[in-house]
Amino acid sequence: xxxxxxxxxxxxxxxxxxxxxxxxxxxxxxxxxxxxxxxxxxxxxxxxxxxxxxxxxxxxxxxxxxxxxxxxxxxxxxxxxxxxxxxxxxxxxxxxxxxxxxxxxxxxxxxxxxxxxxxxxxxxxxxxxxxxxxxxxxxxxxxxxxxxxxxxxxxxxxxxxxxxxxxxxxxxxxxxxxxxxxxxxxxxxxxxxxxxxxxxxxxxxxxxxxxxxxxxxxxxxxxxxxxxx
Length: 229
What we know:
alpha/beta; Rossmann fold; 5-stranded parallel β-sheet; 7 helices
């Protein structure tokens, strides 16, 4: 069984991507980052998901990119917007996936892993530039040039298995694989105990994904009304 590094945020997408890698028979080592995010319940969720799905090892790295500011996810002075805005939203964290993948690449070399799994999704996403297929392709090229493994012909593959799936497709796939989505946290303003606000973009995408998939949404929402009408 080959080793695989899985970037695990504790959210719905990364949990599904981990379940898919495990179903393929890979020995998964999961990696989460404490990057100064305001919604810190996701770190506990990542630990729960990694354990529940049977990952071989889980690491949580401190990564102080939040100190640089520039995102509503790391700066309490920037309000998390309501869904539906145009352009790249203020919840985008500058260069986050580039940094995450770089550190995952370093760990993959240490572990002699041949794959890095990232749960980015280019269909139901918030307009983030580092969730696009072009970004994944560019980082794949970088990985082949910048590592000992790549130079020796044993390069690490960047696998984004959800990139062309809708949120409903992701929910269906994960449900079929036995993912317990009640363990996950997707909300941009989650409470310390993991309850979702019910009003942010991440909550809307998650809620609509479960509804379109015909799967009961196990999310614990603070706001149980109809915030999107």
